[in-house]
Each structure stands twice: as structure tokens, then as C-alpha cells.
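Protocol step 4 of 5: obtain the predicted structure for the target chain.
Materials: sequence only (see below). No template structures provided, no constraints applied. The aim of this step is simply to have a reference model before the mutagenesis design in step 5. Sequence pasted as it appears in the construct record:
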Amino acid sequence: MAQSGDHFEFPDGSTYIVRSPSSDSGGDEVEMEFVLPSDCLPPPPHVHPSQVESYEVIEGSLDVVIEGEWITLGPGESASVPVGASHTFRNSSGELVRVRNWHRPAMKFEDFIEEMCVNMEKAGIRTKYDPRTLIYMSMAMMDHPETLRPSRNCPLYTSDAADDLPALSLG
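Step 4 output (C-alpha cells):
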């Protein structure tokens, strides 16, 4: 069980720090700090079937997509993701981003983060470019369906960014 101050370091250089574990609030919430390097691997689009997720930027800027709408948050700005809304986030700023994050109720969110981190470390995953990274993220999601589930209704790229991708030739 995660404790206040626990650090979970991921292969892309991201660090998730437990600021207030769910045990401090009787399960009402978990507060974490995300330290995200530029171009870190975004979580797969997902939904929380019974939780509200909130972000507050401490330093830098964070892109968040909620139900297909991208917003960029700067220091002191916040956003909340309603229960069941498809979402993800990314750091495309070119600089480090620090974000406070809450899940209400906690629903074992810190256990999900810890499991994902520990399993990637045990597997020897050392870089975000290791193809197993997304597999291990997905496996942890499947182990915690009460906390989060994959979503297919959330774009990872804006339409402008998609226009810059190379064309796929099938012929």
C-alpha cells in the first residue's frame, strides 16, 4: 500500500509522487504530484467509471483532452474530468511540468500506479520506446477496472498534428 512521499518512476522519466494516500482520507481521495518531462508517454485514453479526476498545474503547461476537447493548462490553472468522461493528458511544452492530481474517491488509484511501475521495472523496461510499455500499462488497467478502463473515444493528436503524419500506402 502506497504511503505519503512514495515515488513511482516510469521508463519515460515521469515520476508520480504520493502526496496524500487514500488511507489519509478513508478512501475519499488520493492526491498525487505528477512530474512529467517533455514528450513523456501519455496514458492511453481512459475513463474512470466512478471517479472524478482533477488536475492543477504547479509548473509548466499541460495539455488535457476531455471528451475530444483539448485545453492547455498553465501554472495555477485546473481542470476536472467528470465520472465516465474519456480523457488523457500530455506534455508537449518542451519543458518539465509539475501537476497536482486528485482522484475522488480514491478507488485504489495509487495501487494501480504502483502495480504498473513495479511490473515495468521487473520486466526490465527502461525506455518509453520499449514496445512492452503500452502492454504493461494495459495489463494494469485490466487489473483495476473499478478505477479506470480503456476508452476509444479520445484523440491523442489534434487534427492539425494528424495532418502532419505520413500518409499510409496500402497499395
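Step 4 remarks: The chain has three helices and eleven strands. The longest strand covers residues 52-59.
Proceed to step 5.
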